[in-house]
Backbone:
């Protein structure tokens, strides 16, 4: 895509181009208050982080609309693609009302002048993960020269700039997930209600969707055609994916598959391979477990690979014991790209958990061990997979 050229600021620039037409906003109140408190404390660069589908854009738009309601000039910049510095600057210039003229350093000066003239304002850059490199230098320059500028970005990875405050989103809690499903279902069919006999079905369905907002919203869009029981069956991991009920928004917001594919495309081949190998874990795992399972002699090494995937929001911390987990949709996507020659990987996985099982037995008999029974509960799915592999390859 060619970069637009920039010029003098438009005197008639609107104070805001942010409109939130969606009446549904469920959960995330704590995050919303956290954003307000962060900017009120004097922070000027905040990044909303999270895995695909966790609602970063939705939260950013609701926050931005609130700032508009309070009278703050607020501008929304959709990134969603790999942009060079001039292209990103051109989108920013269009948003804040700068006229086309030159690009490069001269264009940057025009945008800076436009921002300074407008005084206190908020820029929201949505979907910045594909353009982090060009964005770093550009945003650092704008923040240093525009003292009343504040920036909110959404991304799967942080910018890494001094003064950046990171806000990491997690899946919704059970009550929030339930409320979101019902609200979206009533939008799809205004007579929708959950019968008493289906309450547990809905609870199971939301657990299956891992309480990820995008997955919940997409599922709720099918209630006009499918019962909750049918919906739960058709959303099983081995079922044919349902068509998306969405027709608007960027492709990455239309299905969970497209959202995950976008995140995958931004990884270099070495990290794609590491994520595919880590998909052998069925549940939470430790860094020590990852080091035991990932191929030896790999570059980057296991610890660096885990840290980089964690930075890309494709691994998340769970519990208070330093465990990591891959969201199910991401794990299944990565597993499908692992290839059929994964027997050595699965063998390393099986050996690791065989050792864990031996240490768990030690605990049960009161012997010293590095494993406790809480670990054993978390590792049930992986232990079953390891035992199945052993039976398949060493039935004796």
Residues:
């Amino acid at each position: 895509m060619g970069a637009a050229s920039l010029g003098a600021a438009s005197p008639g620039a609107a104070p805001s181009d942010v409109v939130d037409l969606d009446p549904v906003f469920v959960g995330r109140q704590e995050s919303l208050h956290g954003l307000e408190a962060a900017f009120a404390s004097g922070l000027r660069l905040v990044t909303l982080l999270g895995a695909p589908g966790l609602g970063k854009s939705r939260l950013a738009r609701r926050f931005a609309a609130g700032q508009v309601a309070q009278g703050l000039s607020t501008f929304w910049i959709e990134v969603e693609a790999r942009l060079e510095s001039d292209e990103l600057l051109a989108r920013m210039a269009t948003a804040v009302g700068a006229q086309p003229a030159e690009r490069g350093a001269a264009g940057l000066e025009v945008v800076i002048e436009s921002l300074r003239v407008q005084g206190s304002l908020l820029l929201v850059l949505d979907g910045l993960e594909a353009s982090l490199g060009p964005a770093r230098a550009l945003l650092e320059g704008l923040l240093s020269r525009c003292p009343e500028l504040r920036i909110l970005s959404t991304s799967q990875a942080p910018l890494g700039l001094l003064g950046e405050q990171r806000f990491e989103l997690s899946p919704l809690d059970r009550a929030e997930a339930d409320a979101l499903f019902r609200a979206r279902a009533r939008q799809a069919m205004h007579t929708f209600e959950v019968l008493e006999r289906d309450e547990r079905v809905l609870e199971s369905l939301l657990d299956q969707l891992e309480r990820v907002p995008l997955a919940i919203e997409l599922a709720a869009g099918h209630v006009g055609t499918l019962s909750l029981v049918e919906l739960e069956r058709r959303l099983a991991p081995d079922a044919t994916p349902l068509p998306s009920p969405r027709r608007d928004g960027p492709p990455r917001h239309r299905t969970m598959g497209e959202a995950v594919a976008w995140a995958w495309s931004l990884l270099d081949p070495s990290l794609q391979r590491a994520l595919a190998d880590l998909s052998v874990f069925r549940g939470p795992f430790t860094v020590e477990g990852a080091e035991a399972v990932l191929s030896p002699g790999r570059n980057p090494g296991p610890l660096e690979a885990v840290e980089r995937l964690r930075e890309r929001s494709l691994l998340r911390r769970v519990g208070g014991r330093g465990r990591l987990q891959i969201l199910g949709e991401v794990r299944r996507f990565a597993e499908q790209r692992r290839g059929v020659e994964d027997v050595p990987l699965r063998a390393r996985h099986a050996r690791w958990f065989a050792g864990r099982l031996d240490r768990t037995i030690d605990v049960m008999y009161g012997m010293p061990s590095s494993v406790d029974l809480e670990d054993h509960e978390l590792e049930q799915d992986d232990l079953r997979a390891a035992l199945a592999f052993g039976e398949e390859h060493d039935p004796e």
Observations:
- The longest strand covers residues 149-155.
- The CA atoms of residues 16 and 74 lie 5 Å apart.
- Strands lie at 45-49, 73-78, 121-126, 149-155, 164-168, 316-318, 323-325.
- Confidence is low (pLDDT under 50) at residues 1-14, 362-369.
